[in-house]
Records
---
Amino acid sequence: MPRMLSNPTAAHTSKSPAKAKDRDPVATGQRDAAVNRAASHNYFLTDRFEAGVALRGTEVKSIREGKANLKDSYGLLKDGECFLLNAHIGAFSHGNTMNHDSLRTRKLLLHKNELRKLEAQTRQKGFTLIPTRLYFRNGRVKCELALAKGKQDWDKRETERKREADREAKAAVARSQRR
């Protein structure tokens, strides 16, 4: 018969559930820090690439606070490097005089073969690089770049019509299942 301990110990847990719940979902990577919703409306998005972003410390803290906006931003390939332009990252709330410039050009970190592929594809007429979202992965800020071709007004109307027809079809199916 095994010997009984006078003071039985409970299994050690690494983190209490309350502490895990208190952690910010943006910082843990469960939720995107910024999403460019206008991108899918204004462009046909084809290939997507994940790129690291070269940031300063106060920029990372501002992104964690949710002060990033990708609405008018775009990617630029120049001299074998990729840059993110017009991405707005607001000033850090507890920053000082050494705070970052909110609209500065930031370098995107991609592999050489990805850069070559993007360069060849953006040379085609009408294609550009659009950032679709900013998010955290393993504590690092990542930017999802999409190869995009601009939509005309009639393309946007057609997309809206399809979306509306799908919505009505789903509603009809749901109504018929309720009866």
---
Amino acid sequence: MPEQKTEIGKLADDYKGRTPQEILEYALNRFGKDITIAFSGAEDVVLIDMAVKIMPDVSIFSLDTGRLHPETYRFFDVVREHYDIPLEIFFANRERTEELVKEKGMFSFYRDGHGECCSVRKVDPLRRSLSTRAAWITGQRKDQSPNTRAEIPVVEVDPAFGDGKLIKFNPLANWSSKQVWDYIRENDVPYNELHEKGYVSIGCEPCTRPVLPGQHEREGRWWWEEATKKECGLHSGNIRPREE
């Protein structure tokens, strides 16, 4: 949709210097019930905290891959109860997951790479969650992954989902990790207890480990793979060349 991409490109340029709250206010007011927040990490809870002050009944969803840490499952209910808001959970594709495990076992990703497992456990449920939405909100930051996220705009036409119509907002694109955690501390935002154990970027239990001092946060994810490929499929558009 050339016209839509032109409109969204102009919007991204207009809002690139705005605060996350201003970007959220625009997104929520424009799309209302047709927009949802993807929740998994610390950045996403910051967005939820900001969003509920604008739209108390904002839609929030998360993905249950079946391989999350116990702490993450507990955190789902912490957020649900803290904000007194429903949390919609989408589960891994049962048939494809069963087929993959039967054929290759529980840990084939250490040998074959994480893409196949993420496809059935993350990408499929994400596609289902977004199928009824016009837009979604993510917690991506440019400094999370210099190889794949350095150029993300605050708003874009989703390059991976939605058949060219889905709008994707990244209100924290220009924030640093320090700004995220300053907000968390200043506003008493709940966070996953794994952060107190050295985890920074948190995904599935077999594919996530704490990082050492001086390591980049994404080095704790899929640490056996080459650094430039560290996207699980939810933001796979980040590793493809963007259209001008």
